[in-house]
Design brief:
With about 200 residues, the chain is mostly helical. The protein has two domains: about 130 residues, no CATH class; about 60 residues, no CATH class. Helices cover about 55% and strands about 5% of the residues. It has nine helices and two strands; from the N terminus they run ααααβαβαααα. Strands 1-2 form a two-stranded parallel sheet. β1, α5 and β2 form a beta-alpha-beta unit. α3 packs across α4.
Length: about 200
């Protein structure tokens, strides 16, 4: 369901509500995307709509749990109909908020704390997600390019050595270096003692 459809569904449901069970109706909006988090959905939703209340009535929520417990799915699902008013941060200072020209009234500040054990990788993943969303190109850093090149080279070397070993299984009398030499000569168009059928399918 798109954000517009979800908003429309919210509006239709809430316009029909005549009882005091509004929070139960809210739960239905998020099923089956989020299951077993009824109380947390109610709390988060109340915090979200409090953005339009006077300052002294606005709510803040801190979500804590073990890793991979579904915190992000819960938070992002509840925030989905409010996306236009969500400001995402990984950190900020009071000075930054004082310098900003944004009007924070009616806004939802979402701050996602990075795990210290994998902070750099998490930040990189977050930037990549934002880049896809905003169509921004992230230029890899030199050490990332070097690491990628090393992984590619290592993978090619493993495949090459595995290929030579398979050839050697067919010709156990030939040593490793002899097979490598014949492979090099074959690539140059020279005749070698190992037949083409073996080069093309070395698996016994």
């Amino acid at each position: 369901m798109t954000q517009e459809e979800l908003k429309g569904d919210h509006e239709r449901r809430f316009n029909d509500i005549k009882s005091s069970n509004i929070l139960e109706e809210v739960i239905k909006l998020y099923n089956p995307k989020v299951v077993g988090e009824e109380d947390n959905i109610k709390l988060l939703w109340c915090a979200c709509i409090s953005k339009d209340l006077p300052k002294k009535y606005r709510l803040s929520v801190i979500i804590t749990s073990q890793s991979s417990a579904g915190k992000s799915n819960l938070t992002n699902s509840v925030l989905e109909p409010f996306n236009d008013d969500v400001l995402e941060f990984t950190d900020y200072t009071q000075a930054y908020l004082q310098r900003t020209e944004w009007n924070m009234n009616g806004k939802i500040m979402k701050m996602e704390q990075m795990e210290r054990t994998n902070e750099k990788r998490q930040i990189r993943n977050k930037l990549e997600q934002l880049a896809k969303k905003e169509k921004i190109v992230i230029v890899p850093r030199p050490h990332e390019l070097a690491a990628k090149a090393n992984r590619t080279r290592s993978s090619k070397l493993r495949k090459y050595h595995h290929y030579i070993r398979l050839i050697q299984d067919n010709f156990p009398d030939l040593d490793y270096n002899t097979i490598r030499k014949q492979l090099s000569e074959r690539k140059q168009g020279k005749e070698v003692s190992i037949p083409d059928v073996i080069w093309q399918n070395p698996s016994p």
